[in-house]
Amino acid sequence: MIQPPLDLFGPEPQQLAPHTTLLPGFALAQVEPLLDALRLVLKAAPLRHMRTPGGLPMAVALSNCGALGWVSDEHGYRYTPFDPQSNQPWPPLPLVLQALAGRAAALAGFEGFVPDACLVNHYRPGDRLSLHQDRDERDFSQPIVSVSLGLPAVFLFGGLQRSEPARRIALNHGDVLVWGGEDRLRFHGVQPVGPGVHSRLGERRINLTLRKAG
Ligand code: MD6
Ligand code: FE
What we know:
Elements: E1 14-17, E2 20-23, H1 31-44, E3 61-65, E4 69-73, E5 76-80, E6 82-83, E7 88-89, H2 95-107, E8 117-123, E9 129-132, E10 144-150, E11 153-157, E12 167-171, E13 176-179, E14 188-190, E15 205-211
Antiparallel strand pairs: 1-2, 2-13, 3-8, 4-5, 6-7, 8-15, 9-14, 10-13, 10-15, 11-12, 11-14
The chain binds N-[(3-hydroxypyridin-2-yl)carbonyl]glycine and fe (iii) ion.
Fe (iii) ion binds next to loops.
Cofactor: Fe(2+)
Protein name: DNA oxidative demethylase AlkB
Domain Fe2OG dioxygenase: 114-214
């Protein structure tokens, strides 16, 4: 009898744009070690609602690990080697996360990606992230690797101008998105997370973005 192919490795990578690859479920096999590592990170550097330079608290709660962490306050946005809340270095980037990001980047055509910063974004149902570009990193030739956990979200994947229409991309638990090259400065955001309870993470979505910031 002919058997259908065994889909051990999940769905195929999807090329969303010339230098943007969605790897559905790529992080699934590592979720438990990843969450163990994340627990330690957030113990050392708790999630907090940073303020925009205009003084408004962001809906998304944020923390960092790695040599550099992204912060926002009345002075603006920047990467810093110290957590301003504790005056301590950010917790180290967990090896499981660095290795996952390196493998995902290589699959997407970016060999030798070594991140030095990882932003942790924490969403509750209703939280959104407005359209933005990631341009605080030094070298735009380096990609960004994004890992989604918990509740699903609709990612808005726009163009190089804010006014360009954005595509809606579903990001589910375990999905990894890699983008760089000419797509690196695309505007993007996250629609309000819908209500729901994820079987592993409950009423939350966590997104990890790994970057080479310095
Ligand atoms: C999020 N992600 O998915 C927010 N930025 O919650 C981002 O802002 C992002 O996924 C740069 C590259 C990939 C991303
Ligand atoms: Fe971003």
